[in-house]
Design brief:
Blueprint: H1 10-79, H2 83-124
Helix pairs in contact: 1-2
Length: 125
């Protein structure tokens, strides 16, 4: 017995061809969207990275300022002649440092807020 030959109708082949074409187009659109998303993520990452580097530099500058203030206090304490002078120097140091810490915290907070806002804007694009 010879097997019967089954031929796929042309209409079915056309439908399959269109389905493959549509699937290919959908996949290409998916790849395109993925590539755009990756590019946006990379741009955002660069911005975040640059912003984080700026924050790190600013934080280091604050650390340097605070250490300099501590050394300045130490130098003044060494030169103090009375307990009252020492207490006054420490009180003045604490007052100035609390003010400096507040300002530094506010500035770093503002930088972080700007960084987050910039990253969000770029992520939307």
């Amino acid at each position: 017995m010879q097997p019967t030959r089954f031929e796929i109708p042309e209409q079915m082949r056309d439908v399959a061809d269109k389905s493959v074409g549509q699937a290919r187009k959908a996949f290409e659109q998916f790849l395109d969207a993925t590539q755009k998303a990756m590019a946006n993520a990379e741009t955002s990452a660069k911005s975040v990275s640059e912003g984080a580097a700026d924050m790190s530099r600013q934080s280091l500058a604050y650390v340097e300022e605070n250490i300099a203030a501590s050394f300045d206090l130490a130098q003044r304490l060494v030169q103090a002649r009375t307990a009252e002078e020492i207490a006054a120097l420490q009180q003045e140091y604490l007052r100035r440092q609390m003010k400096a810490f507040t300002e530094q915290g506010q500035q770093l907070g503002a930088m972080a807020t700007r960084l987050a806002a910039d990253a969000a804007k770029k992520a939307k694009k």
